[in-house]
Protein 1
Amino acid sequence: MLITSDSYKTTNLKYDKVSPRVARFDYRKHKYAIYIYLDPFHSGEYEYKFKCCGKPQTVKSAYLPIYVGKLENSLQYRMNHHINNFARNIDDSQNQFKKKFFQELERQIEQNKQSGNPDNLMPKSLDEYKNNWIIIIKTFDNPKDLREYERELIKAIGTQYDGSGPLVNKKKGN
């Protein structure tokens, strides 16, 4: 569900991109986390409300969320797995929506490089995208809460597969 609000405009999400956000992720300390891929070329005011772990939750973003994933047992490489496979021309998922997003991202990055505008905040390489647009938003102490949060956030945002939203996730969490 997409919600816009006037109070949202007072936050500085243009640079922070998403809230909540884990500023310093330590894979030795946190075994479980949720990350989100953002679409840098579709800015707006996005707010998703859902219930998880018996509490109301809210995720706000200044950019369109495109993928939600989870890190389990400190497998941090998983966060970049999808974009790394795309860069290596490995299509391990047969996910047409994810492939289309990465192709468009690559095209936009190339256009952005050619524009030469130094004030432009958009990524100028896939590495820059990985470092600045794939963001850990929440950590957990146990896998049960992690999976529930992922499932409920995906449901709140919606997927392209069922026509309910922008996410390229094939599964609605597990």
Note: The chain has one domain: 14-157.
Protein 2
Amino acid sequence: MNKRLISCFAALAAAVLSGCATPKQRCISDATRQLRSVESALVTAQGNIARGYAVHTQRVPYTVGRVCYHTHPRTHAVLPYSCPITQYRTQTTPVAINVAEERRKVAEYQQMLPQLRQQANARIGQCNAQFPE
């Protein structure tokens, strides 16, 4: 019963926190999503060119051995037992890139940005009109 109550509170807290943005903030976020995505890809491609390689990041699991203790219900003896847990670490690996291809991407992203900024500004204007403060 106690675990169920805790999980209900956790679910409620997650629902409340996910709804913290105002409708205007959500509208502006939606309006700028594609622009932010292209800007992020541009920064990534420029970083790859500057380094000469891309970086692949992944979470890798590993097991940590632990000893837990249990009290025997009848004898009240404290008994040890193995209780390994899984933890994660972040591993980064360099990945070879085609610098010419990365430069082509950078040029393409830079060409897309003015139009995306114009579209985002127009949509932000609509959001401001729809949700005045």
Note: The first strand starts at residue 53 and ends at 64.
Protein 3
Amino acid sequence: MWKRSVLWKFPFFFALWKAHMNQELVRIVDNIARDKNIDRESIFQDLESAMISAAKKYFGKTDVEADIKVVIDRQTGDMIAHKDGQLIDIKQLGRIPAQTAKQVMIQKIKADERQSVYEEFVERKGEIVSGTVIRYEGGSLVVSINNRIEAVLPKSEQISGQSHHVAERIRSLILDVRENASQVKIILSRTHPDFIRRLFELEVPEVAEGIIEIKALAREAGYRTKIAVLSNDPKVDAVGACVGVRGSRIRNIVDELGGEKIDIVRWNESSHELIANSLMPAKCSQVALCFELGGATVVVPEDQLSLAIGKHGQNVRLAARLTDWDIDILTPDEYNQEVERLTNGLKDLEGLDDTFIDKLIALGIISVLDLAEIGVDPLVKEIGITPEMAVKVTRLAEDLAKKQTAEAPTTIAQAILQEEIKEIEPEPKEESPQ
């Protein structure tokens, strides 16, 4: 973190014993304050403390209890020192006390700079900073910020597939700022979801101004991001503004991320609409929500299944995180089969009217698995059947669910996903004969 300069040599300490230097001292203090971003008054106080330490080292040989005070005029640089109320001449202390003062001053200014850096960057957590890669340490990158502060971009916070070289300019998010006894450690990130959020604020003025609001964001760094946006101005199209003319704005962000795909989703307060939007480019035929289970059953035409699922399941996985709903994808035939199983399973149970199945579907319960999981209370409160009947329904659903699980029917979406997983999993190595 530290960058040495000629100021650290503090040549004026030795000159102080020969002359007070006045304006030269003020000039050096001003330079340190500017270069190290330290409060000017703190430096003067550190200098006074250092001179007191030097004087105590000198007079301590003969007078341990000596009361020593040093005052430096902040405007003129004049230094006045007293010992037990009597004026003393700093010039007479010699070179060894000067060395003591120098060491004390270096320690205090380093501590001041650590505090200054910590206070500055802890307030900037969550901001994007630009820096220059200066070296690798293991898998981590050391990045110079403003040519005076060194920050660390750990390997875990680097985008998969991207490589960087020394002297390259990169942008990163300030993820964390940690202070310890010897240094301030600034942790950067390029994988955090807020890095995307801040890039949109930089590239899209309407986002920075609050005209367009980023309502939700889900990311798998290096691969794909989904971002839901809402316009607070009816004259501004949220998606169009984020994309930019001929895709100029979104292209800048994608280039910064090394080609990571970004889906801009139109936000909607209706969970039905939001889920359908989040699964685009796939087109959804129907969305059934079960608030009790936090699950959404989405019906998608069979020719849209691959789009809805996405490569290695990324599309549906990110859609689930974006909307905060567990999403289960079915084809129309599979949806009808689940409803049929539910209807046939309950048809012989006495005491249920003809509208019971319709009420279950309205609650987003379209399978015996859902019914077994939902429990007794929602059936009593939402549908209005008696607790005794709710217990019978739940027990029957549990039995049917066990039977269905044993048969292990697999949906087409699950089958597609399993095949993709098999493709990316490494094949087991054959053991060579001994």
Note: The chain has 17 helices and 14 strands.
